[in-house]
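Write out this protein's structure.
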Amino acid sequence: MVRIVGIQRSPDPYCEFVLLQNQGSLRLSLRGHALLREDALESKDVDGLLHIFTDEVIIPPGVYILLHTGRGVPRWSRSRDGALVYVAFMERADSVWWGYHGPVHVLAPQHTYTERREALVAV
């Protein structure tokens, strides 16, 4: 279960970030998780107010995810205290969280259905 543990707001998108953590007891795929501002639900306009993780990465229990607003290359890193952190980027040129103090939602996939690639053959 991914939870928000902190938001650093800044007018500079390269200094702004959201810190999340896998607080569950199982590893999880980050792909398909999303962050959504409450005002996007009210206005039904998600442009710039929603971030969907497309990274094919597995997040172990207790590990942090640092989502920067600015641009960069996703990577694994270590925090100052040695904790493992996955660093991701929203690829935005402007701030998302600066001046916004309403609720922020984490959306997680509940179920994924995929067609089988090979046809089943009864023998």
